[in-house]
Amino acid sequence: xxxxxxxxxxxxxHHVEGAVGGWHDSRLTPAGLRAAxxxxxxLRARIPDGAEVELFSSDLQRTRQAAEEVAELFGVTPxxxxxxxxxxxxxxxxxxxxxxxxxxxxPPAVGExxxxxxxxxxxxxxxxxxxxxxxxxGEILQRPCEHxxxxxxxxxxxxxxxxxxKMPIESAGYVSFRAPxxxxxxxxxxxxxxxxxxxxxxxARHLDTALRAVP
Length: 215
Description:
By secondary structure, the protein is an alpha/beta fold. It has one domain: Phosphoglycerate mutase-like (Rossmann fold, 3-Layer(aba) Sandwich). It is built from 7 helices and 6 strands; from the N terminus they run βααβαβααβααββ. The protein has a 6-stranded mixed beta sheet, with helices on both faces. Helix 3 links the parallel strand 2 and strand 3. The protein is globular.
């Protein structure tokens, strides 16, 4: 039986500064670091001693910091993968969120959503974001390991789950899986039917109430 534990990084500096995240390389806040320690302990309690564990992480600072807290408890080395990054917002990254909000062009209710131009120079399309996320998860899931931990971003969580359930990319343009920062989503595949379950989405019981901000 395979279990994938998907972690959304805790509170980062761009959250409290009201800045656009994306590929902006923000760090965890002091509260975020405390949350990272709590989620690491929660994972340690869920995964049996002696179980085989692999740890993958987006290569941005805020996810690497969270992954390092987990790695210390499990005695593993995080495997960085830039494909697990949040969506790139191009020239908006690091700017005030209201700067992006004034320029953002939302996708249509019907029609082309994945290649939609959101009106921000240099930003990824949703298709580009999904394709790299699916590719990263495809390689992770080719590895035979009982417990895999994936540390990523709140936005990218949608495509991690969508790839897990083998949702066609074009359909993923209509779905959003929301979870609090610093939460754990549990995915499990059984050994008999090989069905892929979403066991829990965005479990944040290990966090203090004040830290449960949805990005």
